[in-house]
Structure formats: structure tokens, C-alpha cells
């Protein structure tokens, strides 16, 4: 969900058998903000009307996540891995912990545990994650703009609905959105796919169509 609600970058409902997990990502999210998401029309209409959403949430937590890398993740005979070194912004922290853990172990086994060895063989791996996160921040600032604009949101939705309705078609926008919100691909890869004219031009066209719909049909 890319609802235009304060503090929420995005939300997701993940069904698991008879249960559903609600995930909200954003800053300073409190119970009131979570309630405004749950009671929004888009979310409310997915549940049977007789269900009282305030009474079916037995388990809640408001944890913090790591959003910034360490200034220096190593020294002589010391190396930090995972969240305490560099992670992937908002997503796939376990994958990033594996990447940094593997790089640290490789360095220690094959090049030693001096600061110089970590600087040469381990730091580039952390720097690579940090560079990707810069693009990640940019991508999330773009989704933030789309979130606040009815026009851009309906253009994006129109394009996704169009893609999903066609068989054997390369679902470019759908896969970009999927990878952005699940962390399944590097942000650089997502960015390059979004800038591909084969996606960008249909998106511009979808914006024009949505503009006509809003002006002439009022939706
Ligand atoms: C709510 C939430 C949801 C997430 N969802 C996902 C997800 O779906 N997919 C994903 O890939 N990543 C997810 N992440 C990120 C992921 O959990 C982390 O990036 C990953 O666990 C980092 O691994 P780590 O080993 O660096 O740190 P951690 O897993 O945090 O391990 C650090 C350990 O050190 C222990 N510790 C801390 N201080 C001390 C001390 N002084 N002495 C001894 N032990 C200590 C802690 O108890 C902890 O067990 C999520 C994070 C959060 C908060």
C-alpha cells in the first residue's frame, strides 16, 4: 500500500494461512498512525465488515531498524559484520549480513586480520552496499512523491493492471515494484530498470491517460 498517510513510507498485508501480518515502514510510527492505516478505506475493504480490526491484533511490536552504516567497520584484529557494519536500506538485512560476514571471513582467512587487510579486501564490500543504499534512498523518495500524488498513483496502478491483464508480457513496472518493496534486487538494478525507456515511456503514457481520466471522468 502506498497510502498518503503521515510518517508511513509503505505498508503491506501478508497473509499466512488463517493469519495476516501487517507491516508498516516509516519514522515515528505510533499506535494512532497504525490505526489510521488499518482503518483507511483501502485496507478496511479487504476485511469482512463484521470483523473488528481493533480486536483482532493480539501481537504488536514497534521495533527500530538499522538505516545507516558504520563509519569504520574494522581495525587491527577487529571487524564488524551485518547491521553493525553495512546493511541494505529497509530490506534484506539478513542477505546483507551474509554478504558482509562472508567478505570478513574471506579476508581473515586469505589476507589476515590487520586493518590494512580489511581496508583493502573488506571495506569495498561495505562501500558497495552503502552506494546502493544512496540509490535506495532516491528510489524511496520517488515512491514518496508517487504516494502523495493521486495522478501518479493512478498512472502507476493503471500500468500494473494493464501488465497483469496481458499474458506472456514482460511485466516491467510490476517487477520493479515487487523488487523495491521486497528487497529482491539491488537498488542499482531497480533504478536502471525503471529508467529503461520500455518502462519509462509506457509510464509517461499512463500518466497522460490518467490525467484525461481525472479531468474528463473525474476519477
Ligand atoms: C522488524 C524487523 C523486520 C525485519 N525483517 C527482515 C526481513 O524480512 N528480511 C531480512 O532480510 N531482514 C529483515 N530485517 C533485518 C534483519 O533482521 C537484520 O538486518 C539482521 O538480523 C542483521 O543481522 P546481524 O547478525 O547483523 O544482527 P542481529 O540479527 O541483530 O544480531 C545481533 C545479536 O547480537 C546480540 N547482542 C547485542 N548486544 C549484545 C551484547 N552486548 N552481548 C552479546 N550479544 C549481544 C543481539 O541480541 C542479537 O542476537 C528486519 C529487521 C527488523 C527490526
Radius of gyration: 21 Å
Our count of helices gives 9
Low-confidence stretches: none
Unique ligands: flavin-adenine dinucleotide
Shape: globular
Question: Helix and strand succession?
Answer: EEHHEEHHHHHHH
Distance between the termini: 19 Å
The oligomeric state of the chains shown is single chain
Roughly what fraction of the amino acids lie in strands? 5-15%
Quick one: how many beta strands?
4
Major β-sheet profile: 2 strands, antiparallel
Which structural class is indicated by helix and strand composition?
mainly alpha
Average the pLDDT over all residues and give the rounded result.
91
Going across the biggest sheet, name each strand in turn. 1-2
* Portion in helices: 55-70%
Number of domains: 3
In short:
The chain has 219 residues and is mainly alpha-helical.
Folded structure, characterized:
Helix content is 55%, strand content 10%. With 219 residues, the chain is mainly alpha-helical. The protein folds into three domains: 1-64, no CATH class; 74-133; 149-217, no CATH class. A two-stranded antiparallel ribbon has the order 1-2. Strands 3-4 form a two-stranded antiparallel sheet. Strand 1 and strand 2 (19-26) form a beta hairpin. Helix 7 runs antiparallel to helix 8. The protein is globular, with a radius of gyration of 21 Å. The mean pLDDT is 91. It binds flavin-adenine dinucleotide (FAD). Flavin-adenine dinucleotide binds at residues 63, 65, 82-84, 87, 92-95, 97.
Amino acid at each position: 500500500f502506498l497510502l498518503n498517510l503521515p510518517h508511513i513510507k509503505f505498508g503491506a498485508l501478508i497473509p499466512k494461512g488463517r493469519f495476516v501480518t501487517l507491516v508498516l515502514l516509516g519514522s515515528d510510527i505510533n499506535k494512532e498512525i497504525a490505526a489510521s492505516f488499518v482503518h483507511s478505506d483501502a485496507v478496511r475493504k479487504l476485511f469482512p465488515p463484521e470483523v473488528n480490526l481493533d480486536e483482532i491484533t493480539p501481537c504488536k511490536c514497534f521495533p527500530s531498524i538499522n538505516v545507516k552504516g558504520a563509519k569504520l567497520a574494522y581495525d587491527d584484529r577487529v571487524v564488524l559484520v551485518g547491521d553493525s557494519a553495512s546493511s541494505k536500506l529497509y530490506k534484506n538485512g539478513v542477505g546483507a549480513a551474509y554478504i558482509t560476514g562472508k567478505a570478513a571471513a574471506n579476508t581473515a582467512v586469505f589476507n589476515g586480520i590487520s586493518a590494512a587487510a580489511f581496508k583493502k579486501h573488506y571495506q569495498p564490500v561495505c562501500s558497495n552496499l552503502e552506494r546502493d543504499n544512496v540509490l535506495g534512498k532516491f528510489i524511496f523518495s520517488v515512491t514518496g512523491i508517487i504516494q502523495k500524488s493521486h495522478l501518479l498513483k493512478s498512472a502507476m496502478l493503471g500500468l500494473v493492471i494493464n501488465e497483469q491483464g496481458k499474458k506472456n508480457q514482460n511485466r516491467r513496472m510490476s517487477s520493479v515494484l515487487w523488487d523495491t518493496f521486497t528487497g529482491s534486487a539491488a537498488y542499482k538494478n531497480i533504478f536502471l530498470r525503471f529508467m529503461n525507456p520500455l518502462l519509462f515511456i509506457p509510464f509517461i503514457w499512463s500518466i497522460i491517460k490518467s490525467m484525461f481520466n481525472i479531468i474528463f471522468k473525474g476519477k
